[in-house]
Amino acid sequence: MGNSKIKALTMKKFIKISPPGNGDIIADQERVLKALHDEFGEVRFSHQLLKKIYPLCRQANWEVTTTLIKNGKYWELVELEAGDKSAYHLGIAVDLGSTSVTMRVIDLNTAAVLGEESILNHQIKYGDDILTRIFYTKDKNEHLKAIQQATVDTINVLFNEFVKKMVIDPLEYTVMVISGNTTMVHFLMGIDPWPIFEYPYAPVFNHTGYRNCQDFGLLVNGCFYCLPSVANYLGGDTISGLLVAKLEEKDELGLFIDIGTNGEMVLGNKNFLVAGAGAAGPALEGGISKHGMKATTGAVDTVTIVENELRLTTIKGGRPLGICGSGIVDLIAQMLLNGWIDFSGRFNPEKSQRIVKRDGEYGVLYANRDEAGNGEELLFTQTDMNQFIDTKAAASTMVAYLLERLGVTPMDVERLYVSGAFGTYINLESAITIGLYPDLPRERFVSLGNSSLNGANALLTDREKMTTAIKLQERIEYLEFGAATDFISKMHASRFLPHTDFDLYPTVKAELIKRGRFR
């Protein structure tokens, strides 16, 4: 039964117990523990299960399935079921993002992924960004409870979707691993995250340990575990990503980057790990433009300019409704290469009829009323451009600062791991063209997809990664970008496309020279 190579976070063990009688008066609990002892050693038994053991064992004719979880040095018994239910063993991985929440169901006997769903985080009704939500809950216990409930509701909605679609007994779900940033996990636990924002920026906690789902109103039967955070802006989602990237196992110098609303990055190898994080802004997720949108149906996701004509594609085809992060990066890169904008991001209206003036400022009209799916003019304006360049500058400066602190150059990075939805769908050439990523040989880039979710998945199917996660949390040296005196001046140098120092971007420089854009 199952795959013997999988060391899942929980184990299901079917046991047949000799019943009491003929002078054998050993208690029910001791009978169960004795049946488990040879394989699991000393097993801890919760009061909740003690209340369940009678009459379950007697009604099941002393044939029961036990569910156990490794908690430190000991195994804990977390569930008892009548009969042999060992074939039904499911786990849940959750990426608890500030904007969207994704859930994946995994068969813990085979490691097969049985399904994946994503919805918007219900917290959004209390603020589009994390900072607004932190201020909303400060010193207001009722507000904190509301955001905690919104978090729980989001997870429960996703869970109910799976229960309905898969027609599986909720008892078969034994454990949930949650990966999220430091603030999201504080909200889930009902802990005021204000210390994350206020100097000296120390979270209330880094580790949650195992928690009973029902104690928090979660509909999952078993327990949940949140991957540990390192610092205020370096959360369990980064630790989760490192479980996938495995920097700490390698000789080569690796750089892990996850750029979204926040930018998180870790540089290192098996000898050291140094990390930094900071606000990048919503621009990279399409959140700055009036017509910006998430990467959903109708979003412009790719842009090219061929013979000075703008061409674009949308997600799932159809007419455009707005533009997402990958589309914005393409649009800016293509306009730069074709002279529609200068190196500071200023529009050159004489270069194309697509560059129009509306409400006193220039912008590129990437879809007119006839071309758009909503009958509106879709514009990317100078204001949008400036905000995007600020975000790009923040993200690239974080990388530059991290490298400089360790005395290494971009070319010393032998592998660059790109995480997150933005990193998955972005055109790599476009990102390098505008200076978002270092100009490295392209084969050094590795896309990890949703590493927050994939790391939670990895832990569910390999409990030894729990030790790795805890060691990573302890080993990482965290740099506070806000304390860097020259960060702002470095950021100003990065406000140009791709950078004020073109020698940092040799392939971009070569392409611009080829196109007559640079001498």
From TrEMBL:
<dbReference type="InterPro" id="IPR042259">
    <property type="entry name" value="Raco-like_middle_sf"/>
</dbReference>
<feature type="domain" description="RACo-like middle region">
    <location>
        <begin position="90"/>
        <end position="249"/>
    </location>
</feature>
<feature type="domain" description="RACo linker region">
    <location>
        <begin position="6"/>
        <end position="86"/>
    </location>
</feature>
<dbReference type="Pfam" id="PF14574">
    <property type="entry name" value="RACo_C_ter"/>
</dbReference>
<dbReference type="Pfam" id="PF17651">
    <property type="entry name" value="Raco_middle"/>
</dbReference>
<dbReference type="InterPro" id="IPR052911">
    <property type="entry name" value="Corrinoid_activation_enz"/>
</dbReference>
<protein>
    <submittedName>
        <fullName>Corrinoid activation/regeneration protein</fullName>
    </submittedName>
</protein>
<dbReference type="InterPro" id="IPR041414">
    <property type="entry name" value="Raco-like_middle"/>
</dbReference>
<dbReference type="InterPro" id="IPR027980">
    <property type="entry name" value="RACo_C"/>
</dbReference>
<dbReference type="InterPro" id="IPR040506">
    <property type="entry name" value="RACo_linker"/>
</dbReference>
<dbReference type="Pfam" id="PF17650">
    <property type="entry name" value="RACo_linker"/>
</dbReference>
<feature type="domain" description="RACo C-terminal">
    <location>
        <begin position="252"/>
        <end position="509"/>
    </location>
</feature>
